[in-house]
Design goal:
197 residues, five-stranded antiparallel β-sheet, 5 helices, globular
């Protein structure tokens, strides 16, 4: 679920205008709380009584600790790190990506341009809204910076989609996808999210 959520906002690189100014240090305790809450989310559909609704609060620290300590080893090598910042009805993400390991095999012009224009490790920062209701979710990007510089929106969206498609399972964070565990919606608040099943 967290990788799915992270993928929806997968690429918000660390740019001063987009990130929380406080430094992030992953916490084993916060990662454990996140794991426990994810198990609760996973188990709920099998235990749900008719008409029952469950809400689960996941803090920014819990999710970022889980991403850093538990999930980062499962990222495709093109994704080096991911950090999320939650604001009321907004999501910011910072990702460090290795363009050389992205390996886009598309014959379309924009994906091919990525490999011609960039190489090595870069930071991608994205800001926008997480649209997560009626069992489906996707990220609507409003602003993005690539190594602190603005690039054309279609190029940034192509990079985000390409990184998402390299993950397991593959997905495009910019396209509506079915949320797991019968999640109905996700509300983004300042510093945390509320998951409604």
């Amino acid at each position: 679920m967290i990788l799915f959520l992270a993928g929806l906002i997968l690429f918000c690189p660390p740019a001063p205008a987009f990130t929380d100014s406080s430094p992030f240090a992953p916490s084993k305790e916060a990662a454990e709380r996140c794991r426990s809450k994810l198990e609760k989310l996973k188990d709920f559909p099998d235990k749900r009584k008719s008409g029952e609704i469950q809400t689960t609060k996941l803090t920014q620290n819990e999710i970022n600790s889980y991403l850093a300590l538990d999930l980062s080893s499962q990222y495709h090598p093109c994704l080096k790190s991911l950090l999320l910042v939650f604001e009321k009805d907004r999501l910011k993400a910072t990702a460090t990506i290795d363009v050389d390991r992205l390996g886009t095999t598309s014959q379309k012009l924009l994906p091919r341009l990525i490999g011609l224009m960039f190489s090595g490790i870069h930071t991608l920062a994205a800001e926008g809204q997480l649209t997560a209701k009626d069992g489906k979710a996707h990220f609507v990007m409003e602003k993005a910076l690539f190594d602190g510089n603005a690039l054309p929106k279609p190029l940034v969206e192509t990079i985000i989609s390409a990184v998402g498609r390299q993950q397991k399972p593959p997905f495009d964070p910019l396209q509506p996808s079915e949320m797991p565990y019968e999640i109905n919606k996700v509300d983004v608040k300042s510093g945390y999210i509320i998951v409604v099943q």
